[in-house]
Design brief:
Exhibits a very high intrinsic GTPase hydrolysis rate. Involved in the addition of a carboxymethylaminomethyl (cmnm) group at the wobble position (U34) of certain tRNAs, forming tRNA-cmnm(5)s(2)U34. This protein has 15 helices and twelve strands. By secondary structure, it is an alpha/beta fold. It binds guanosine-5'-diphosphate (GDP).
């Protein structure tokens, strides 16, 4: 029998607020069933088995007023999300009904749940580890096929298992080192140093692999920022609009009117792109405001993960385009796509000249007409290929780290593992080796919550919404 640790029963609306066909009010805790039965037409609920549904009315016993016809889903500890007794009341989705139901349950002994408290209980009652609990929030927030897939894998414990395996291997060695320490003066070596060095190299390799996967994980979770830059009138706003399929940016034929940055997100093939439209680039800015705009464009390119350099095919020669791209990305290591716009106006020989000039180079060239909505699929495919190519190259591990907290913990672990490795190479004392190994283990343990503090838990679970 699983021991749950909370004596109070919490309640919250678990579906979004507002009108809907149904709303679900959820209770969790030792009195969940008794509290519900007190206001439910079927008193036999207290005797009912777990995983059963019960149709009836909710009534205020003090006034006799019927509040709603509902279906009660019953889960008995430990076979529930929180491992406690859980009741889910499906009522009609009106704010008024929900308020009445909540008030009734609160009057009969439940307490309003804090943000993330259901998931926190699931973690503290041992239903899932911390990485899995965090995946619940990610899964709820997932808005693309890939972020959904990664969150689901984490929720199902894939990442946690990998970490537990790593820790288990290190723990053995840590124990042997600690044993040596217990013998103090006696200069014994239980832990085989060569074996330890080999194990360390292996574990550190896995940790670094996971860390590298964060690059892709971050892209999957937070999207990739792509700056669209180019001369005024190249068609940046038109392209952005075409990509977003809605008229957000101000399109105008007067050069240099897009002075502020316009950002928007669009999901392409499961990846989220955040496009930033910039002020037009120009060698001799006509006025001061625009000069500032150009400065800021360079600044934005520096922060971006990718650059789309857009140009009007009939305006610039291939060599000019290449020179401008180079100037914009000088000293930066970021993928660039050259995008030639207005194919509808360009001569066939111009197009051929560009294809020839870019054919052998590193920078992919996409030709399209933003205004005529032609060639956008080619651009979308090139964008996705660019991200997948650079991020996946670095991702050997099947598990993808998406959480900043996990990435930080992995960095700490990697640093301490490196210190143990150096320590072994330079014959450092057992005490120092053992200390670094302990730190590395602690960092790995923080990810799954084998080691956790109240502060950490609070900061994680308060990011959830109420009812989760
Ligand atoms: P920006 O200054 O780079 O943001 O350029 P805009 O998006 O404001 O476009 C400048 C002008 O070029 C507008 O009049 C657009 O309608 C026009 N334009 C954009 N794309 C195309 C295209 O593919 N073909 C043609 N013919 N005109 C285009």
């Amino acid at each position: 029998m699983v021991q749950t640790i909370f004596s109070d029963t919490i309640v919250a609306l678990s579906t979004p607020p507002g009108a809907g066909a149904l709303a679900v009010v959820r209770l969790s805790g030792p009195a969940a069933v008794v509290i519900t039965a007190a206001v439910f037409s079927k008193k036999s609920l207290t005797q009912a088995a777990g995983h059963t549904l019960h149709y009836g009315t909710l009534r205020d016993p003090d006034t006799g007023e019927i509040i709603d016809e509902v279906v009660v889903a019953l889960y008995r500890a430990p076979r529930s999300f929180t491992r406690e007794d859980v009741v889910e009341i499906s009522c009609h989705g009106s704010d008024y009904v929900v308020r009445q139901v909540l008030a009734l349950l609160l009057r009969h002994g439940a307490r309003l749940a804090e943000a993330g408290e259901f998931t926190k209980r699931a973690f503290l009652n041992g239903a899932m580890d911390l990485a899995q609990a965090e995946a619940v929030a990610d899964l709820i927030a997932a808005d693309s096929a890939l972020s959904h897939k990664v969150a689901l894998n984490q929720l199902r414990g894939g990442f946690s298992q990998e970490l537990r395996d790593l820790r288990a291997r290190l723990v053995q060695f840590a124990a042997l080192l600690e044993l040596e320490l217990d013998f103090g003066e006696e200069d014994v070596e239980f832990a085989d140093r060569t074996g330890l060095a080999r194990l360390l190299a292996e574990v550190r390799g896995v940790v670094l692999g996971l860390l590298r996967s964060f690059e892709l994980g971050n892209v999957i979770k937070n999207g990739i920022t792509a700056v669209i830059a180019g001369r005024p009138n190249a068609g940046k706003s038109t392209l952005l609009n075409a990509l977003l399929r809605e008229e957000r940016a101000i399109v105008s034929a007067i050069p240099g009117t897009t002075r502020d940055f316009i950002e928007d997100e669009v999901s392409i093939d499961g990846l989220r792109f955040r496009f930033v439209d910039t002020a037009g680039l120009r060698d001799n800015p006509a006025d001061e405001v625009e000069a500032i705009g150009v400065q800021r464009t360079r600044q934005r390119v520096k922060q971006a993960a990718m650059l789309l350099y857009l140009f009007d095919l009939s305006e610039l020669a291939p060599a000019e385009v290449q020179a401008e791209m180079q100037e914009l990305t000088a000293g930066l290591d970021l993928p660039v796509l050259a995008v030639g716009n207005k194919t509808d106006l360009a001569l066939a020989e111009t197009i051929r000249a560009f294809e020839q000039a870019f054919g052998a180079g590193q920078t992919p060239l996409v030709l399209l007409s933003a205004g005529q909505n032609q060639g956008l699929e080619t651009l979308q495919a090139a964008l996705v290929a660019q991200v997948r190519g650079s991020a996946l190259e670095n991702t050997a591990s099947a598990t993808i780290v998406t959480n900043v907290r996990h990435a930080r913990a992995l960095e700490t672990a990697a640093a301490h593992l490196a210190a143990v490795q150096t320590g072994l190479d330079t014959g450092r004392g057992t005490e120092l080796l053992a200390a670094d190994l302990r730190h590395a283990l602690a960092a790995l343990g923080e990810i799954t919550g084998e080691i956790s503090s109240e502060d950490l838990l609070t900061s994680i679970f308060t990011q959830f919404c109420i009812g989760k």
